[in-house]
């Protein structure tokens, strides 16, 4: 297991994950307008890109990524999560991204491999 640590010891870096998620969302949705027919494709692409980029870091974590895309109509959206884990190593981040026609909410959960 030692090869996983190789200078990457420490807790989950949520700021780094935030940046990865934002880049992935921009890369998939960019300046597009909301389109019901593209939502399934967008959400699948966003979670796959996020997972790929997170795993490329080579850090000893298992990742879970969720994504929700919602058209801006004035309706409310509330999300919450709760985790029972080792707060010194494990972590999560949630990114809320928007453009003029939609919201995108992506959550990343990282659980250290023991």
From TrEMBL:
Gene3D superfamilies: Tctex-1. It comes from the Eukaryota. It is found in: Chromosome, Centromere, Kinetochore; Cytoplasm, Cytoskeleton; Nucleus. GO terms for biological process: cell division; microtubule-based movement. The keyword Cytoplasm applies. Belongs to the dynein light chain Tctex-type family. Homodimer. The cytoplasmic dynein 1 complex consists of two catalytic heavy chains (HCs) and a number of non-catalytic subunits presented by intermediate chains (ICs), light intermediate chains (LICs) and light chains (LCs); the composition seems to vary in respect to the IC, LIC and LC composition. The heavy chain homodimer serves as a scaffold for the probable homodimeric assembly of the respective non-catalytic subunits. The ICs and LICs bind directly to the HC dimer and the LCs assemble on the IC dimer. DYNLT1 and DYNLT3 compete for association with dynein IC (DYNC1I1 or DYNC1I2). This is Dynein light chain Tctex-type 1. It comes from Scophthalmus maximus.
């Amino acid at each position: 297991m030692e090869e996983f640590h190789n200078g990457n010891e420490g807790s989950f870096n949520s700021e780094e994950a935030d940046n990865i998620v934002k880049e992935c969302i921009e890369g998939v949705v960019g300046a597009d307008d909301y389109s019901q027919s593209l939502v399934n494709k967008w959400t699948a692409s966003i979670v796959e890109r996020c997972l790929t980029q997170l795993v490329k870091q080579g850090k000893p974590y298992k990742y879970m990524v969720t994504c929700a895309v919602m058209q801006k109509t004035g309706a409310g959206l509330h999300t919450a999560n709760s985790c029972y884990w080792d707060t010194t190593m494990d972590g999560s981040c949630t990114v809320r991204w928007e453009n003029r026609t939609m919201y995108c909410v992506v959550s990343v959960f990282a659980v250290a491999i023991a």
